[in-house]
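Q: I have 289 residues here and want to know how they pack in 3D. Can you give me a structure?
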Amino acid sequence: MKSLTVESQNKQIQTLVNILIATVLIGALIFTLIPILFMFSASMMPSKDILKMPFRWIPQGFHWQNFAKAIAGNDESYIFIRNFFNSILVSVIVTLTTVILSCVTGYGLAKFKFKGRNLVFLAIMATMMIPFEAIMIPLYLVATKLHLQNSYGGLTLPFLVNAFGVFMMRQYLLPFPDEFLDATRIDGAGEIRIFWEVVLPNCAPAIATLSILTFRSQWDNLLWPLLISQSEKMKTLPLYIVKFAAEKYTDEGAMMAVAVLGSIPMLILFFTMSRYFVSGASVFSSRKG
């Protein structure tokens, strides 16, 4: 009887803990979603409705003029389209190069034994300790000497690979079964084929995560484009948003519309790749068993 009572109490405690955890998570989700819901709702309203209190969360119709003004700009130059394209191009280039170079480097550091391997890895990790603000001015001077201002090269070259990506891919590939690689080598496959046909397909969860993080960091990058891009045509979307929001006669509805348009690529990327998080969470567990 005592054992049954103790077991019943443990189940009740576990149930209460689960309810508490679920409540906290739901509260955090609501707290996170409120600004996003406000942004989307306000983007469909005229400015006078946004400033009303209490705030009406469900807009009365779709105020398309907000999006028209967001794209045209206050000066109706439609520079938004070029700035949006610049951000897409820079983010895609940096994401692709970061993923490829990080995978290659991480694979080499994880699966190839050579002298100084740990020293190379530590040197790469040491660069993570240096904040970008510390190297920003020297980097700008180098870019100036190479005449990279107002160019896509200037926007992308400093970010083609990063230490975090190398670290992430190395740690992900360390538990990769060596037996798979050895069996493929016995079958006569070369190292390049092994990498592209065996290693990369099994890195989908890590690649998806790294792609999202890299794309987001470049999509939100404000400081470096502010330094390297002086002409309006070479500026990126964050610079457009700052300029649009800082202008005297910008209305709140158009500001929210700009924010919505700037959020769409990140939302598409996240929902496209989020399925890899769950499907690949235990990619090696079944093989080890």
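Q: Anything worth noting?
A: The CA atoms of residues 66 and 89 lie 25 Å apart. The two ends are 39 Å apart (CA to CA).
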